[in-house]
Structure formats: structure tokens, C-alpha cells
Specification:
3% strand; two-stranded antiparallel ribbon; Helix Hairpins; single chain; mainly alpha
Length: 140
């Protein structure tokens, strides 16, 4: 259980760091384009989606590592990388279809990943709102 907690904490820290870096990069890109242009917000949202996909991949690789070291078990027999990516994506976005689930003590990582997804998606939403307010509303 300690190993699962440490790997989960590492995946969470990497995801937060990646998200912070992505939003910082987006801020610099938006600052480069002066004035009002809808393409800047669309481009920034595209970069944010890429950041979220990379964060899902971080948790996917953490789950893959734990599975290969027999720390966790899934409800399906012998899940491949795409099964784990699918599970991670549905967990991160808190959709949670339930067709693939973790069994046993490994369920802890799914709780943390869903919380991380909720927080990071909300961070992106508030960032986007702030940038749209700053670039569109105040300058029109």
C-alpha cells in the first residue's frame, strides 16, 4: 500500500507541475498576441486539452507500472495499454463508466486521479474564463 501511495503522489505532483507549466506557457503565448483575437483562446484551449491528455498519460503509466509489478488488479483479465489509458481517462474526467475498475487496495489511485482531474479541469476553466474576460470583455 505504501508503494501505491508513493507512486500516486508522484503522478499527482507531476500532473500539477505539468499543468502549471502548460498554463504558464499559454499565458506567455497569449501575451505575445496583443489585442482581441478568438484564435488565441481556441489555441490556448487546444494546448490545455493536450496538457490534460498528457496528465492522463502520467496516470496511465503509473497504473501500468503498478500493474506490471503486481501492486494493483483490474476487473478485466490482462488489460493492455489502451485499456489502462481508457480507464485513466474516464477516471480523470470523473465519467467513470464502470466497465473497467480497480480491485482491492489499488482503488486509492482512482480516487486521487479523479480528484486531480476535477481540480485541474476546474483550474483550466477558471484560467480560460480569466483570459477571456481580460482579452474580450475589457477590450471591447
Amino acid at each position: 500500500m505504501l508503494e501505491i501511495s508513493l507512486i500516486t503522489a508522484l503522478a499527482s505532483i507531476l500532473s500539477i507541475g505539468l499543468h502549471f507549466t502548460a498554463l504558464l506557457l499559454i499565458t506567455k503565448i497569449l501575451a505575445y498576441f496583443h489585442g482581441i483575437h478568438p484564435a488565441t483562446i481556441v489555441f490556448s484551449l487546444l494546448l490545455a486539452v493536450i496538457a490534460h491528455l498528457l496528465e492522463i498519460l502520467i496516470f496511465t503509466y503509473a497504473l501500468q507500472f503498478m500493474l506490471s509489478h503486481n501492486m494493483i488488479t483490474f476487473s478485466i483479465i490482462d488489460p493492455d495499454f489502451f485499456d489502462i489509458f481508457y480507464f485513466s481517462g474516464t477516471t480523470y474526467t470523473t465519467v467513470g463508466y464502470g466497465d473497467i475498475v480497480l480491485v482491492g487496495s489499488g482503488r486509492v489511485i482512482s480516487v486521487v486521479e479523479s480528484l486531480m482531474g476535477l481540480v485541474l479541469i476546474a483550474w483550466t476553466a477558471s484560467f480560460t474564463y480569466y483570459e477571456m474576460n481580460r482579452k474580450w470583455i475589457r477590450k471591447t
